[in-house]
Each structure stands twice: as structure tokens, then as C-alpha cells.
Design goal:
There is one protein chain. The protein has 368 residues and is an alpha+beta fold. It is 70% helix and 9% strand.
Length: 368
């Protein structure tokens, strides 16, 4: 321990803690570090009927309101960092081959034979997706070892993002329309079945409207009752001054008997006849069929209205990707920031040197 403390002179500490790290960093940044170009684009997801609001995004979240565009942008951010998109981009542009091509840089290259999970983490580190809560914008920053590749990769991400937004918004609209159309088809079948039952009933009993027939039968019964009452009154009047076997009394008695039989026949037909020919039962069954048909027609009208509303609503809810800033081809390599990193490393090494020298001085002081 004493030898180590003796060895750690201020000059050697400077060399070990400041000079050597700076020398290694300088060697790395000048010889090994690969230039990384960044292509940037700004996009957002908008809905057809989405209206602008006076409140910023942060105020909406504090108020408990979640704008539709915010959710859509968050979905899109997750999709850009998804494994599905990575596989598509790798098959189209050869991402793995590009990031493995820089052999000298040991820290920022993709090593050959890496697993799918590690490749995904590497991809997420090279493709940044920043979400602006206030403006509701997504900033996509893509790093590449070549400026053309960075721009091409950013453009491919936007193209796939637009396809993703269109696909899921159209799928929602299509499912909504399919449900409404299925309900309309079901209502149409119910309406047609109800109409067929009405037609079958009319054909079976050869009646257009049993209710009207029953009303007509009731009117006829009332007329027969009135005529019978009149004839019976006349009969009683004749019998008051004529014999029962007189011609006038006999004729009027026959008329009364005929009216009474006709009245009984009409009453029997309406209420006491056979089950298949009773007018009151036919009218009741026909009214029930008409109610079913009317209900089915109302349901069909509602389903037709729902289809039209769903079509309009689906059109209004279609989403699209709005490109605020297109991907550009970078001219200068933003990374690595050599001067910034060297200055930062120098400050950290100076702090480490100061702490180490203080510790060494303290130990020496206690030894003395």
C-alpha cells in the first residue's frame, strides 16, 4: 500500500487520470470513430373531422382530456420502434448489412451474428422518435453511416408509417360499416319474412283485410238487427187486428224468420263458426301479423339510418399521416461530437484527478 501511495505522485496521477484517457479518446475519435449522419423529419397523425383546440396538449392532459391525435401519435411511435417494422426495413434496405459495414468503430457498429432482440435494441438507439406533448408532433431522427442511407431509411419509415395509419383507420371504419350492414341485412330478412307471413295469411283465407271484413260483418249484423226489429214491430201491429193465419201475417212472419236466420248465420260466422273461418280470430291474427310487419319495417328503417350514419362517421374518422418536414439528406455528420466529448472527458478526468489526489494526500497525511 505504501508503495502504491509513493508511486502515485501528482505527475503520475495527471498522466494516468488525465493524459492517458484523453490520449485514448483522441486516438478513438481520430482513427476508429465512424461518422454518423442524422436525417430528421416531423410528422403527425390527423383525423378528418379533428378540430383545432385552444388548449395546449399539457393543459388537456391536466384537465383529463386525451386528444385523439395524441393516442394516434403514441401508437405510431410504438409501431416505428416495433420488430415488425424492423423486419420490413431490413428486408427492403438491408439495415443489418449497413450497420455491420463499419468495422473500425467498436462502440457504434452492429456486430455480426447478434440476436434479433439485440438488433431491435440497436435499431431503437439509432432511430429516435420524439413526441412533443404540446404541439402533438412526432420527430423522427435516423442515424446512418452514410447520408444517403439515413435519408432513405427515414423516408421508408414514413412510408410504412403512412401505410400503418391508413390500414388501422380503414380497418376500424370497415368493421363499423360491416356491423351496420350486417344489422341492415338482418332487419331486411326479418321484414321480408313478416311480409311473407301476411301474404300467406291473405292467400290462405282469401281475404285482403280480415279486419275490414269483420267490420263489414258487424255492420251487416247491425243492419239485420234493425231490419228484424222493424219487421217484428210490424208483425205485432198486424196481429193486433188480423188473424195469425191471414196472408199478410204469414208473409211477414216468414220475413221475420228469414231475417232471424240470416242474423244468426252472420253472428255464427263472426264468433261461433269453425276455427278456420271465424272472422274475429282471423282479424286478431291478422292484426298481430301487421304489428310484426310494422315493427320489422321500423327496425329496417333504423338499420338503414344506422348504415348511412356509420358511412358518414367512418368517413369523418379516417386518419392520415401529415408530413410537416420531409426527410432531408444531411451534409455534415452530427455524431460523434468529437470536441464536445473531449472537453467533457477532460472535465471528468480533472474532477477524478482532484478527488484521487485529495484521497492520496489524506492517506499520506495519516501515514505521517
Amino acid at each position: 500500500m505504501n508503495k502504491v501511495i509513493t508511486f502515485l505522485t501528482p505527475a503520475r496521477l495527471k498522466l494516468l487520470l488525465i493524459g492517458l484517457p484523453l490520449l485514448l479518446a483522441l486516438l478513438y475519435f481520430t482513427v476508429l470513430a465512424a461518422d454518423r449522419y442524422v436525417s430528421e423529419s416531423i410528422v403527425t397523425v390527423r383525423q378528418a373531422n379533428q378540430e383545432a383546440t385552444a388548449l395546449p396538449g399539457a393543459a388537456l392532459m391536466l384537465a383529463g382530456i386525451n386528444p385523439a391525435s395524441r393516442e394516434d401519435n403514441l401508437y405510431l411511435r410504438q409501431y416505428i420502434h416495433s420488430l415488425d417494422l424492423l423486419k420490413k426495413l431490413d428486408a427492403e434496405l438491408g439495415l443489418r448489412a449497413h450497420y455491420e459495414a463499419e468495422n473500425l468503430d467498436p462502440f457504434y457498429r452492429l456486430w455480426g451474428g447478434t440476436s434479433q432482440e439485440w438488433f431491435l435494441e440497436y435499431y431503437r438507439a439509432r432511430v429516435e422518435v420524439l413526441f412533443d406533448e404540446i404541439a402533438g408532433l412526432l420527430t423522427v431522427r435516423v442515424q446512418g453511416f452514410e447520408p444517403e442511407f439515413a435519408q432513405k431509411l427515414n423516408a421508408a419509415i414514413l412510408r410504412e408509417s403512412e401505410a400503418f395509419v391508413n390500414a388501422y383507420s380503414q380497418r376500424i371504419a370497415r368493421e363499423q360499416m360491416q356491423f351496420a350492414e350486417a344489422e341492415l341485412d338482418r332487419a331486411a330478412r326479418r321484414l321480408q319474412a313478416a311480409k311473407n307471413e301476411v301474404l300467406a295469411f291473405q292467400t290462405k283465407y282469401k281475404l285482403l283485410d280480415p279486419t275490414a271484413e269483420a267490420q263489414a260483418s258487424g255492420a251487416l249484423v247491425a243492419e239485420l238487427q234493425a231490419a228484424l226489429a222493424k219487421q217484428e214491430t210490424e208483425l205485432r201491429a198486424l196481429r193486433s187486428y188480423l188473424n195469425d193465419d191471414s196472408f199478410q201475417v204469414q208473409a211477414l212472419r216468414n220475413q221475420v224468420e228469414a231475417l232471424r236466420k240470416q242474423l244468426e248465420a252472420e253472428r255464427s260466422r263472426a264468433t261461433n263458426g269453425q276455427r278456420d273461418v271465424r272472422l274475429n280470430e282471423q282479424a286478431a291474427r291478422f292484426q298481430d301479423l301487421l304489428l310484426r310487419a310494422g315493427f320489422a319495417e321500423d327496425a329496417y328503417k333504423l338499420a338503414l339510418t344506422a348504415v348511412e350514419s356509420a358511412r358518414i362517421d367512418a368517413t369523418r374518422k379516417l386518419k392520415s399521416l401529415v408530413v410537416i418536414e420531409s426527410p432531408h439528406q444531411p451534409e455534415d455528420a452530427i455524431y460523434p461530437r468529437r470536441l464536445y466529448n473531449l472537453i467533457t472527458l477532460f472535465i471528468v478526468c480533472c474532477l477524478l484527478y482532484g478527488v484521487t489526489r485529495l484521497v492520496v494526500a489524506t492517506i499520506r497525511e495519516h501515514q505521517d
